[in-house]
């Protein structure tokens, strides 16, 4: 994606007609709308990390913050796993990913510049997003009002999906700034 020599708009990540997020730009219905935004923000995170090595992905933002692109990938993996598997699918017995009782911020503190750590983070993120998408494919708009139990409260499925969209949108903004600090790439 980073090759700017063959693009009409070299200042953009991809030319508009090649933007993979466009495939989800015309959703129909409530479920599809939430899902399309989620897929679009997932693709944005992936685009912002494209072409970077382990050192760049693990580069921290501003001390004392532990925020990094790799940390965001690990954090979003944990978010997908928690909300889709533990909450929406009722598998609360599953342990949280990238968190320990000693370090609840291990998704970020464990994001180190080691190729195997990067490879594992991406593999786990892809597995969790694929599992989430497989589960979402079993739903209809009628399921959006169905409730699940979370922290002794009944929460509609639509609220959980909206939370996930918000989570990704927030972190896509972080990813914009982190990437700009690494190599000056901005926009889109």
UniProtKB/TrEMBL annotation:
Ranges where the record places region Disordered: 1-21
**In which residue ranges is the amino acid composition biased (Basic and acidic residues)?**
1-10
Q: Which Gene3D superfamilies does the entry mention?
A: dinb family like domain
Please name one Pfam family that this protein belongs to.
MST
* InterPro entries on file: DinB/YfiT-like, MST-like
Supply the name of the protein.
DinB family protein
Q: Which organism is it from?
A: Isoptericola variabilis (strain 225)
